[in-house]
Amino acid sequence: MHKGSMLKDKVAVVTGSGRGIGRDIALEMAAQGAKIVVNDVGASVSGEGNDASLGQQVVDEIKAMGGQAALSTDSVAEWHSAHRIVQCAVDHFGRIDIVVNNAGILRDRMFFAMSQDEWKAVIDVHLNGSFNVSRAAAPHFKSQQSGAYVHMTSTSGLIGNLGQANYGAAKLGIVALSRSIAGDMKRYNVRSNCISPFAWSRMIGSIPTDTPEQQARVEKLKKLDTAQIAPMAAFLASDAAAEVTSQIFAVRGNEIFLMSQPRPVRGMHTAEGWTPETIAERVLPAMKPNFFPLESSAVVFSWDPV
């Protein structure tokens, strides 16, 4: 954690900040001078339970280092409770400048076995939660003509992963949400960006370790500290990032990547219009070399982090 003043006098809401990446972001932002609403319902990885002491510990840590913090135990998944999270910032500190949408749960299951509840629970926290908290802050950002959103996406959505249809769909949905927020709120000097973090946390603690290859991958991930994500979040929330919006950054150890976004790769035109047959005969062979392989994050990021 680096002491600085990049977020002096700013007020940040960090959801899911009782532990893991969220906790490190809250501590880093506090060290940079921000006043923090530590929001955490204190649930298990799958979303069960309610332990307010986790968030309170982080509040106490921030106060012990001379910072200001308040605790919120409201859920991001419901419209009204998400609004209470933002109101907590306004009540305690008089304003809100930064929203970090970090709260998340996992219900990993192969798609063909996934239940409706497993789908809905993950979408509610990640995607609906990111919308709810962002939307609650929007009128404040709009009226003060400033504000920054930092959302958490994942290579499970950007690239793909087995057994995470719910999580991957939510995380790619968050990218589109961030882009829409960036566009809709640009005129109010409000920015919105995504971080795709690589770090050992409870979120990936459920990766299967049935084979030696999987075990080796998990051992590598365990070396990636959640605290290494926090500097990027603090930067994106700061005035130094005034020109940065609608971007996706991946952070892996000491590596930072700018991730691509969907754009046309190949195009074909015919004056007479296409038929299913001519698509099979002409389009398929022309475009097939440019098809994207069905890959997982581990294949795309195949080298060890430095």
Automatic annotation (TrEMBL):
UniProt xrefs under InterPro entries: KR_dom, NAD(P)-bd_dom_sf, Peroxisomal_Beta-Oxidation, Sc_DH/Rdtase_CS, SDR_fam
Pfam families: adh_short
Segment forming the signal sequence: none
Record-annotated Ketoreductase domain positions: 10-206
Domain of life of the source: Bacteria
Family: Belongs to the short-chain dehydrogenases/reductases (SDR) family.
Protein name as it appears in the record: SDR family oxidoreductase
Organism whose genome encodes this protein: Piscinibacter koreensis
Native organism taxonomy: Bacteria, Pseudomonadati, Pseudomonadota, Betaproteobacteria, Burkholderiales
